[in-house]
Each structure stands twice: as structure tokens, then as C-alpha cells.
Amino acid sequence: MKNLAFAMCLFLTSCAFAPNSAPWSGVIDEHDPRTAHVVDMCAAYCANDLDAWAKHFTEDAIVHINDVDYTTAEVKAAFSAGHALFDGITHEEVTCTTMRYNNGEVFTNYWYVWSGTVRSTGEQLKIKGYAWFRWEGEQIVAFYNACDPTKYNEAATGSPAEIK
What we know:
alpha+beta; 41% strand; Nuclear Transport Factor 2, Chain: A
């Protein structure tokens, strides 16, 4: 009886997690080369090496930061400027995986905690963030980054930010 119960459990579990052919289903892969590229790119950002950060982007890649569109050049300049305000920028608690969807779309997802020390006060900030990178072949054609910028902006301006 135990063997029958085990066999049924195994069968039901395998059916529940069986791959399917739905367009937005697919394979999540922590070891995809694009996953490694994103981890390396984010390490380059932390080291203020924005040329290495941007090398996987197409020239006309669309960049969205909290739903505002920028060019890659604008983001490079803004990300680099942050290093003048903060010391020891790192990403902690990183999870990064690439999803290859059945419809041919490929996205790398990146969850992290941004950490940096405000140069003017010595205060350490930690801000949770999420980003996705959309790939066409071996190049990024779109990038989205989301976080609550309130504490970052307050530290950068030296005064409380107005929330809109």
C-alpha cells in the first residue's frame, strides 16, 4: 500500500510540474551564459566600470528605470554619477536566472539589494531592487530596473524627497 501511495504521489507531482508548450512557459536556467553576463555587468556597475556594464546592449536598447525611458548613454552617466555620492556600492542577496520562453523571448531576471554608504554622512543605505534584461541573440535590447528611489534621492540631495 505504501508503494502504491508513493507511486501515485510521484505521478501526480510529475504531472503538476511537467513542461508545457504555452507561449509564456519555458525553461528557467541559472547557468545560462546570459545569466553570467548579467551578474558580470552588475559587478561592473558596482565597480563603476560602465563601459563593461553596457557592452552587451544594442546601440538602440530601450532602458526603463521606474517606468521612465532613457538611452543607454543617459543611464551610464547617471549610474556613474552615483559613485560620486556613494562609497562601496554593492549588490547583495543576488538571485539571477534566465528564462527562455517557448515563444522565443529570452529574459534574464535579477533581484538584488543595492547597498552604498553616503559620502557626506557615512550613512549606509540598502534598497531592494529588481531588473529584467530582454535579449535578442546575444545582445540586450531592453532593460527595466525597479526600486523605490526615495532614500537614494534624499541622500543625493541632502533633503527629504517629495513623493509623487
